[in-house]
Amino acid sequence: MIAVIDITGNNLSSLTNALARLEQAFILTHDPEQIKRASHVILPGVGTAAYAMQALREKALLEVLKNLKQPLLGICLGMQLLFEHSAEGE
């Protein structure tokens, strides 16, 4: 099952519609245990890096994402969040 990480502010409808059209089993979640058990993880994102990082911190997902062994796909802001640093907002 694919875990699609749900952090507030994401525009998830296009992604979830695409997964459904492709008949891929997925769960929309911010639960660390569900994310750890997923076969694949997608981190979508829209907005600012600082806001999204704060949302990940509040949901205790930073360490979960750092320690994943399964494939992780970052889309848009989600990809930016996978880097060590962002100059956005400086």
Element-level helix/strand string = EHEHEHHEH
Q: Structural class, please?
A: alpha/beta
Kindly state the percentage of residues in helix.
25-40%
Taking strands numbered 1, 2, ... along the chain, how are they ordered across the largest sheet?
A: 2-1-3-4
Oligomeric state, counting identical vs distinct chains? single chain
Distance N terminus to C terminus? 38 Å
Poorly predicted regions: none
Counting DSSP E segments of at least 2 residues, the number of strands comes to 4
Provide the number of structural domains. Answer: 1
Number of helices: 5
Which value, in Å, is the CA radius of gyration?
12 Å
In percent terms, what proportion of residues is strand? 15-25%
List the helices and strands and how they pair.
Blueprint lengths: L1 E4 L7 H9 L4 E4 L2 H6 L2 E4 L5 H10 L3 H5 L5 E3 L2 H4 L10
Parallel strand pairs: 1-2, 1-3, 3-4
What do you see in this structure?
The chain starts with a strand and ends in a 10-residue tail after the last helix. The chain has one domain (2-8, 19-80). Strand 1 (2-5), helix 1 and strand 2 form a beta-alpha-beta unit. A 4-stranded parallel β-sheet has the order 2-1-3-4. It is of the alpha/beta class and 90 residues long. Helix content is 38%, strand content 17%. The model has no long low-confidence stretch (mean pLDDT 90).
